[in-house]
């Protein structure tokens, strides 16, 4: 299979562990999502008209310079800022996003050394784009590992714990309100007196540093499947729910935070130590819930060299397969994507705090939304090994990446001489 693909000039990119990087799969998912965005943009037209949605521009000055670099004039330009409704609220431009996503990663330029290293690509950066999400998760994983490396060197007494904070599932229409609530709950949580007790007139920080990532799951199972039952047998038995029963969470979202918290190692022995029930109580209070939410707290076995395990928290915001690959009607898919898309609009999906934020600033780590998605790790290209540059383009006909150009590096050098 691999051999014939190579002969046909189809892209095969293999990672360090020998696993094929699924460029094709991601590209196909982005194309499917682009179709959904296009349908939403058609459906939403009457609503946008009613809301007086219009394009906004801002005036920008551009300097005209002559060859000597002297300013010879100024042009006032109108730069598009996006779509706004008549109340001044920014809205999602589904049409533009569909168009951008359709071309996402249609061009990939690699340098071939021992393996392929991506050196250039056109990523669309649409927040839900499966291709971009994949790159972003790698980027955040890498950045967080790098921060943890500094933490280990600098703060030998700090220990990471994993904390997952959830709320009950919500309806598709209610996602945005639920996100408003859990984002403000996070702030209330981190600023609570429990985590910042007063000691001798000063506020003590129990959490020395943190990282958090938002994840939103969608439940597409109409009935309790065997696989689902096996995953949470105890829960279903306790509630007398059997395989084949109606799934009460069908067509709901499950937004939650995954986080890494750094605490001093004495925390586990001291009076500040909190059991799971206490974390539940604090999260319940912060999120103003009238029930006990599910929270998981887990001390990591992280010793030196295991920081990668910690960075695993950098999950995808949502699993595109939960929506794209399921047997859902087009209308249902559109409804889910529209809700997800407008609910996460303008939110910070990944964030750092405390010493992790300080280290991120020192290392000049950018927000995942702005970070480079081409180079997602610290690779060095060994020029002695770099044999050629390969350019692949997405080929609609074969639904795969086909080689479009090959530049032999040695030959290139010869030609310069
Ligand atoms: Zn993209």
Helix content: 25-40%
Structural class, please?
alpha+beta
From the N-terminal CA to the C-terminal CA, the straight-line distance is 40 Å
* Global Rg: 25 Å
Low-confidence stretches: 411-417
Number of helical runs? 14
Q: Topology as H/E string? A: HHHEEEHEEHEEHEEEHHEHEHHHEHEEH
Could you walk me through the main structural features you see in this protein, from its secondary elements to its overall organization?
The protein has 14 helices and 15 strands. With 417 residues, it is an alpha+beta fold. The strands form four sheets. Strands 6, 7, 10, 11, 12 and 13 form a six-stranded antiparallel sheet that branches. A hairpin with a 2-residue loop joins strand 8 and strand 9. Helix 6 packs across helix 9. The longest helix is centred in the middle third of the chain and has 25 residues. The chain is globular and about 65 Å long. Bound molecules: zinc ion. Zinc ion binds next to helix 5.
Quick recap:
Helix content is 35%, strand content 25%. The chain has 417 residues and is of the alpha+beta class. The chain binds zinc ion.
């Amino acid at each position: 299979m691999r051999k014939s693909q190579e002969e046909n000039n189809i892209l095969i990119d293999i990672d360090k562990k020998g696993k094929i990087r699924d460029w094709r799969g991601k590209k196909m998912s982005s194309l499917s999502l682009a179709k959904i965005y296009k349908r939403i943009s058609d459906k939403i037209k009457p609503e946008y008209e009613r809301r007086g949605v219009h394009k906004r521009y801002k005036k920008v000055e551009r300097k005209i310079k002559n060859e000597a670099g002297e300013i010879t004039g100024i042009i006032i330009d109108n730069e598009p800022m996006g779509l706004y409704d008549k109340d001044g609220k920014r809205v999602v431009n589904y049409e533009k996003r569909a168009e951008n996503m359709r071309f996402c990663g249609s061009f990939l330029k690699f340098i071939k050394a021992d393996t392929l290293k991506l050196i250039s690509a056109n990523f669309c950066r649409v927040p839900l784009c499966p291709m971009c999400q994949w790159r972003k998760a790698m980027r955040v994983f890498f950045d967080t590992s790098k921060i943890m490396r500094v933490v280990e060197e600098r703060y030998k007494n700090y220990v990471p714990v994993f904390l997952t904070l959830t709320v009950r599932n919500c309806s598709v229409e209610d996602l945005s309100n639920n996100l408003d609530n859990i984002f403000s709950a996070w702030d209330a949580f981190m600023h609570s007196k429990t985590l910042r007790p007063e000691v001798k007139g000063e506020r003590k920080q129990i959490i020395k540093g943190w990282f958090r990532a938002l994840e939103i799951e969608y439940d597409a199972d109409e009935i309790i499947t065997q696989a689902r039952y096996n995953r949470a047998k105890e829960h279903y038995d306790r509630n007398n729910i059997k395989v084949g029963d109606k799934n009460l969470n069908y067509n709901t979202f499950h937004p939650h935070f995954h986080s890494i918290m750094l605490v001093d190692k004495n925390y586990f022995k001291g009076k500040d130590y909190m059991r799971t029930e206490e974390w539940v109580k604090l999260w319940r209070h912060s999120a103003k819930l009238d029930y006990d939410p599910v929270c998981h707290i887990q001390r990591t076995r992280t010793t030196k060299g295991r920081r990668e395990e910690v960075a695993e928290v950098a999950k995808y915001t949502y699993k595109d397969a939960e929506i794209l690959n399921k047997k859902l009607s087009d209308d249902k898919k559109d409804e889910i994507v529209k809700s997800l898309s407008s609910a996460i609009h303008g939110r910070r999906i990944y964030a750092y705090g405390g010493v992790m934020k300080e280290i991120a600033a020192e290392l000049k780590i950018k927000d995942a939304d702005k970070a480079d998605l081409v180079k997602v790790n610290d690779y060095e290209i060994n020029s002695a090994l770099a044999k050629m540059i390969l350019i692949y383009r997405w080929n609609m006909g074969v639904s795969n990446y086909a080689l479009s150009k090959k530049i032999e590096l040695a030959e290139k050098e010869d030609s310069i001489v």
